Amino acid sequence: MKPLEVAGYGWLTLLYKELLRFWKVSFQTIAAPILTALLYLLIFSHALEAHVGVFDGRVRYTAFLVPGLVMMSVLQNAFANSSSSLIQSKITGNLIFVLLPPLSPLEIFGAYVLGAMVRGLTVGLGVLLVTLWFLPDALAPAHPLWALAFALLGSLILAVLGLVAGIWSDKFDQLAAFQNFIIVPLTFLSGVFYSIQTLPPFWQLLSHFNPFFYMIDGFRYGFFGLSDAPPLQSLAIVGAAAISLSLIAFGVLSRGWKLRR
Amino acid sequence: MPAAVEVAAVARRFGSVQALDGIDLTVHEGEFFGLLGPNGAGKTTLISILAGLTRADAGTAKILGHDVVTDYRAARRALGVVPQELVFDPFFSVRETLRIQSGYFGLRANDAWIDEILHHLDLTSKADANMRALSGGMKRRVLVGQALVHRPPVIVLDEPTAGVDVELRQSLWAFIRELNRDGHTIILTTHYLEEAEALCARIAMLKAGRIVALDTKQNLLSRFQGLTVRLVASRVPAAWQPRVLRTDAGVHYLGLDAYGELEGLLVALREERVHIDEMALAETDLEQVFLRIMAGDDMQAVPPPSLEVPEA
To answer: Which pTM value belongs to this model?
Structure first.
């Protein structure tokens, strides 16, 4: 039988390969981050539940924490997927298998980003499910579509950042620096664990310059109908970030920066 | 009909190194073509430009008439590349690797051909083994399989037999020859000159980013009618120093134009009281030609391919 040449099949194959890559080590790529988020939840809720109420006491601390942890997991795993897939392929040299075929920059962009979004959203969903198990009454999202919109845009942004970081890094060291000194601080300081209303004015102001704050605040709005920033403003900022970062990443791929020397 | 590969005035610089310095090269469809040169001559850079892995600073490259930059989809579809480095994706089995590679080229339901490749490369029993579990030679065979999975009319092999055992080398060449007989154009770089001599009908030699020889194998071999003396001695007489092609661990290789010169060499050795430990004559083979061309201090590219061969 003659093989069928199917338009778009190259892109689909790269996406399939990206999904298969993390699925084959799902214990490490899905189960482990879910456990980590669960540990955060258990420890912080135990330590702080009795002392902290959020949004003027209208939301219990543990309930407040859940969407933050879900979103944090979505963001970190989306970033981890595209960045580690690329750096591994670059360092082992097998990226050549992706560079030799007639895949367009847009196809490469789409496959890596979508693969990373699926990983981030899968982990996020997993965190949500196990925390529901522990807190069955705490979660009945007020605006599920808002939550979904922020989850999609947030995972897109981090998947794109991961793509750029993976292309930029020549060594695991550099990627780890990107992750530890940029991604982790921005996530931790974005209001995963606290409402920024509890911060001193200076730090509140600073938080408004952290794009991650809008992703998490907007996502949380989807759950409680309450947020630190107006949700439409958050959506506009996050949407603009998603578009501009995507354009940058697409430009980087089109020029072949660091990939096609 | 467009040429299989057409390279015009291609140049590429990496920092202060001029990796390619104006390369013009045409490889016709169905040729078995050799690309030879010492390390750093620019062979891999040239191949990378053909494959779209590297961009030329100047000049154009076409595969079957498709420009590798402006018409890259058609160019890449027409080209299969076996890379020099032994790379693999540790997440997948042999069959998965080939199926995925086939998919990247937009091909579905390609299993019949994949099975045939596995058979030809003697990998059928390893089809479901993870790439990590394979020996170096087997990984190399998978790389060859990946390059062939979309049935490219033009196949480039960048030192495919480095580190491969003799038996596999033979079966690999039998397979590549068969592909060539079926009409595939083959471009080969190798360090094993006897391999190029046995396989390639036409050869380009690269040195410092330039083509210093481009001719049929027959013409190259007849270009130097001389012979090479393999001399094991403490030193070479001063007057004969310029004739040394190469010295390897006390073994000197000297180029002679004719047998008549041998007498002069022996006289010089006797007069300078150089003791001869060992001496042998070698007929011209591709390795001798290669050494002579590489040793030549004139760096000028040979005049266009239709040249009359200069007397050595």
So the answer is: 0.87
- Do the Cβ atoms of B90 and A21 come within 8 Å? no
Counting DSSP H helices and E strands in chain A, the numbers are 12, 3
Interface probe, candidates A21, A100, A106, chain B, greatest B C-beta count within 10 A: A100
Computed on alpha carbons and rounded to an integer, the radius of gyration of chain A in Å comes to 19
Q: Which of B163, B179, B159 is nearest to B32 (CA)?
A: B179
Give A134→chain B minimum CA distance, Å: 35
Alpha helical stretches, state H, A60-210: 61-92, 96-99, 105-134, 144-168, 172-178, 184-188, 201-207
B77: which chain A residues are within 8 Å (Cβ-Cβ)?
102
Give yes or no for B50 touching A (CB within 8 A). no
pLDDT tens digits in sequence order for chain A, 261 residues long: 567 777 789 999 999 999 999 999 999 999 999 999 999 999 988 888 777 778 877 888 888 899 999 999 999 999 999 999 999 999 999 999 999 999 999 999 999 999 999 999 999 999 999 988 776 665 678 899 999 999 999 999 999 999 999 999 999 999 999 999 999 999 989 988 888 888 889 988 999 999 999 999 999 999 989 999 999 999 999 999 999 999 999 999 999 899 988
Minimal CA separation from A22 to chain B, in Å: 9
Angle (nearest 5°) at CA B27 between B25 and B28: 145
Chains A, B: CB pairs < 8 Å: 98
Residue of A nearest to B57 (CA): A261
Burial of residue B87 (number of CB atoms within 10 Å: 0-12, 13-18, 19+): middle
Whether B92 sits inside 8 A of A20 (CB atoms) is yes
Inter-chain CB proximity A16 and B100 less than 8 Å: yes
Residue of A46, A120, A54, A47 lying closest to A82 (CA atoms): A120
CA–CA separation, B228 and B288 (whole Å): 7
Q: Quick one: angle between helices A144-168 and A211-224, nearest 10? A: 160
By CB atoms closer than 10 A (0-12, 13-18, 19+), residue B43 is buried
pLDDT tens digits for range B160-190: 877 677 877 888 888 899 999 999 999 999 8
Report whether B52 contacts B1 (CB < 8 A).
no
Those of residues 41-100 in A touching chain B at CB distance below 8 A are 89, 92-94, 96-100
Instruction: Decide: B86 and B139 in contact? Cβ < 8 Å.
Output: yes
Task: Quote the CA–CA distance of A168 and A190 in Å, as a whole number.
Answer: 25
Torsion of CA A204, A206, A208, A211, to 10 degrees: -130
Minimum distance, in Å, between the CA of residue A1 and any CA atom of chain B:
7
Neighbour count for residue A191 (Cβ, 10 Å): 27
Ordered by where they begin, the domains of chain B are: 5-220 (3.40.50.300), 226-283 (3.30.70)
Q: How many residues belong to chain B?
A: 312
Residues B189, B43: contact at Cβ < 8 Å? yes
Cα–Cα distance between A202 and B120 in angstroms, integer? 70
